[in-house]
Specification:
mainly alpha; two-stranded antiparallel ribbon; 4 helices
């Protein structure tokens, strides 16, 4: 029988049509510690140092292990994730409440604005921490790059 190729993680594995891939990742480390460190807003390498110096300002270096955190930026990723998550959860909730109670429209506008802003601001910092931790997990070479080296190795 013919062999087909299946990409598992970063390794190309040749399989017979009846075989399956047992492990989808070729990395020895698990994602869970990185997610846990990101949620706690701690350094993704050591899990101890602070990730932020203000509300969303990333520290330049980890105070424990010396990882250069400021070199990488999560961009708009955390905000976009939160827009999708909050839109998916809070909008149906607001519609269900609007169908069950007879509040004036201005009261709905005030209540749901406060709920959405509060949850977005409360979740933005951990979402940014998780995004940076996952960037470290999957693109570690960008964190370890020399300061004068350009992205893509064009330094």
């Amino acid at each position: 029988m013919g062999r087909r190729r299946r990409l598992a993680g970063r390794a190309l594995i040749l399989l017979k049509p009846s075989e399956t891939v047992v492990s989808q990742s070729t990395h020895s480390d698990d994602v869970l510690p990185y997610l846990r460190a990101g949620l706690r807003c701690r350094c993704p390498r050591c899990g101890e140092g602070r990730l932020f110096k203000g509300y969303l300002d990333v520290v330049d270096l980890c105070e424990v292990c010396g990882l250069e955190l400021a070199r990488n930026d999560s961009g708009d990723g955390p905000a976009v994730f939160l827009i999708f998550i909050l839109g998916f959860t809070i909008v149906p909730l607001a519609l269900m409440v609007a169908m069950r109670v007879d509040w004036p429209l201005w009261l709905h506008a005030i209540i749901w604005s406060v709920v959405i802003l509060g949850t977005a601001l409360g979740m933005l910092r951990p979402a940014k921490g998780m995004t940076l931790a996952l960037q470290y997990r999957y693109r570690r070479d960008e964190f370890d790059r020399a300061p004068d080296e350009a992205p893509g190795g064009q330094g």
